[in-house]
């Protein structure tokens, strides 16, 4: 049976005519809890559609368990407190799986609330699939048995990014601009540690942490970057906070190489293109021009929504869920959580594994560069004529970071 599951994982869309588990034909409902209004609504709306698109694409005969996946959106307005309200509403409506990603503050609140709910309500357990909240604490000192992270955490991404940056000799003076919450603070922290280890000659000539989602004009920050003598910018900003920063760079005429986590996220590519050719890099677990099934999904999503499918964690999330339900021969969250631990899945960029010790997905990382589309890299991001082309792929071990997680296993 394990051989059959591995074979299916390697070909996630093979038609499972022989699947005969008891849960075949069941509907597995997932509550999506993220901003659907407010300054980050465009990102949340895209990612809700991405979860629903992946769920539809990988339902029924397209997953080894034969189940149907259904994803419903709950608007948390970007707030940890609203996230808790949304979580309660979802649980009251019978959802046993929740997913969230935009904001580690919200993720930490949800993880803690899910853990407490499960302890108090045996038989009504909930599993939390974190697809984009990257604070390392979630799989270290604040790890929890019911939390599974599909994205690579901040330290993993920065390990990959600084490994690439150390070989760029023109980088000498770096300016750090980040959002003032756990993610932005961690980007700055892990960059300083990583670059000090790998390129001790690199200087940090300036650093800013700004309020999350509140800055409307980044011109004062750009002026400080100009005055600092920086030759490189590093930022973990996302959504409106990156889009508006790039706009301010364009308006000032300042063109510096920029190393990012989320330059591909909704809205930012359009503003990058408006500024003409820019040297922009992004670190991530995938890229715009992957082939195979994920490439077909990118094209089909574009046709359906006239929008970009870039949150590939939705693909891995649904794929791992299908494999775990098949392995557990049940859609019960207690059995599925146990099956997810240590589970491997043949993803779009090689094999990934949900590490048992901390529930952090181990996966390949990519450095991509903003450039005009060409024959080798044809994906037209946000209809700009530009794309993010891969310049380096790193195997999972390169960015795999140790964990301090001491997980309490009250289940399984």
Q: Uncertain segments of ≥5 residues (pLDDT<50)?
A: 1-20
| Widest sheet: strand ordering | 7-6-8-9-10-14-15
- N-C termini distance: 20 Å
Pairing-aware structural class of the strands and helices? alpha/beta
Helix-residue proportion: 25-40%
Radius of gyration: 21 Å
Tally of DSSP helical segments:
13
Shape descriptor reads: globular
CATH class of the largest domain: Alpha Beta
CATH architecture of the largest domain: 3-Layer(aba) Sandwich
- Overall average pLDDT: 93
**What would the CATH topology of the largest domain be?**
Rossmann fold
Order of helices and strands: HEHEHEHEEHEHEHEHEHEHHHEEEEEH
CATH superfamily of the largest domain: Response regulator
Number of strands: 15
How many domains comprise the coordinates? Answer: 2
Instruction: Tell me the β content.
Output: 15-25%
| Biggest sheet features | 7 strands, mixed
What does this structure look like?
With 412 residues, the chain is an alpha/beta fold. The chain has 2 domains: 2-152 and 291-301 and 311-362, 3-Layer(aba) Sandwich (Rossmann fold); 155-284 and 364-399, Response regulator (Rossmann fold, 3-Layer(aba) Sandwich), CATH 3.40.50.2300. Helix content is 38%, strand content 20%. The chain has helices spanning 2-10, 41-57, 80-92, 104-120, 154-165, 182-198, 219-228, 240-252, 268-274, 292-305, 313-328, 333-340, 396-399, and strands at 27-34, 68-75, 97-100, 127-130, 147-149, 173-179, 203-210, 232-235, 258-260, 280-284, 344-347, 350-354, 361-362, 365-372, 386-394. Helix 6 (182-198) links the parallel strand 6 and strand 7 (203-210). Mean pLDDT is 93; it is low at 1-20.
